[in-house]
Amino acid sequence: MTEVIDGNAVAEEIRAGVSDCVETLTDTGVKPGLATVLMSDDPASETYVSMKQRDCEEVGIEGIHVDVDNDAPAEELYDTVERLNDDDDVHGVLVQKPFVDQVDERRVLRTIAPEKDVDAFHPANVGRLVAGDPRFKPCTPHGIQRLLESVDVETEGKEAVVVGRSDIVGKPMANMLFSKSAGGNATTTVCHSRTEDLAAHTRRADIVVAAAGRPEFITGDMVSEGCVVVDVGINRVERDGDSELVGDVAYDEVAEKAAAITPVPGGVGPMTRAMLLYNTVKAASAESGVDVELP
Ligand code: NAD
């Protein structure tokens, strides 16, 4: 029988553990703080930021939000980040993507202090992950790692195929899957938009992580019986006049063959949010020197 991996339940456990860490830190006078910065009038970005703020509130993290005017010079955004870097009440800084045209994305990522970079996108933190000594693990791949652990999926020696090579999902996910220090130890293939015969790769995979942003494009004939499928995609499609959220995986037909699969919604999404809270308490603990038992 196919196991549906319940991201909501695993995320809830992590959030409960994070809540305990917040209590320990707060008892010693350290209130963990996460700052979100938004320079965009994109409604989806506004929703993501308000969800992150709500998540903070629920676990007792101090949420600080800064809006930077859409039309302001890019310097205003860089200065805002510098100010938050210097603010002792802020332990994590997150600038919501995508960025407006005048902003240099690489400069934003370099400006966030590495010890407050709870998204783990700063080149120093990317380097540490690759070197096997992560300060923070990036939220989405870390969440996926936890989901696999939650259903006892053994990655060691297995064939893993990651579809997508983005900096935020594909690349760090592949790294964590193949590296020994991150516990993956899988033989890992990264497929992307120029991959010839994607299905040939996915069919021989024991574990498929789909992160291409293409609605339902991993179909039943592209996976093998008994594989484990993690669907990272979040795609809004119009169907019969209604707007619907679907993943990168054609769920019904793939679930028929898979041993385990993550649904959309309720799979990877809640884990990404939970791991951001996790990284924020980790940052607060490291900065203050107060030990906590991370979940
Ligand atoms: P991205 O657009 O930055 O990267 C997509 C990657 O997919 C690229 O590397 C590209 O080469 C590859 N790709 C595109 N078409 C392909 C094809 N036909 N065959 C093989 N590879 C192909 O996307 P991203 O930021 O990595 O996000 C991917 C998806 O995951 C999106 O739907 C996004 O919304 C979603 N996402 C979800 C979460 C979550 O928490 N659930 C987090 C981040 C991203």
Automatic annotation (TrEMBL):
Binding site for NADP(+): 164-166, 234
Coiled-coil zones: none
SUPFAM superfamilies: Aminoacid dehydrogenase-like, N-terminal domain (SSF53223), NAD(P)-binding Rossmann-fold domains (SSF51735)
Gene Ontology biological process terms, A to Z: L-histidine biosynthetic process; methionine biosynthetic process; purine nucleotide biosynthetic process; tetrahydrofolate interconversion
Pathway: One-carbon metabolism; tetrahydrofolate interconversion
Tetrahydrofolate dehydrogenase/cyclohydrolase catalytic domain residues: 5-119
One GO molecular-function entry: methenyltetrahydrofolate cyclohydrolase activity
Lineage: superkingdom: Archaea
Domain Tetrahydrofolate dehydrogenase/cyclohydrolase NAD(P)-binding: 138-286
One Gene Ontology term, aspect cellular component: cytosol
Pfam families to which the protein is assigned, alphabetical: THF_DHG_CYH (PF00763), THF_DHG_CYH_C (PF02882)
Catalytic reaction annotation: (6R)-5,10-methenyltetrahydrofolate + H2O = (6R)-10-formyltetrahydrofolate + H(+); (6R)-5,10-methylene-5,6,7,8-tetrahydrofolate + NADP(+) = (6R)-5,10-methenyltetrahydrofolate + NADPH
Subunit and partners: Homodimer.
PANTHER family, A to Z: C-1-TETRAHYDROFOLATE SYNTHASE, CYTOPLASMIC, C-1-TETRAHYDROFOLATE SYNTHASE, CYTOPLASMIC-RELATED
Similarity comment: Belongs to the tetrahydrofolate dehydrogenase/cyclohydrolase family.
Protein name, UniProt field: Bifunctional protein FolD
Natural source organism: Candidatus Halobonum tyrrellensis G22
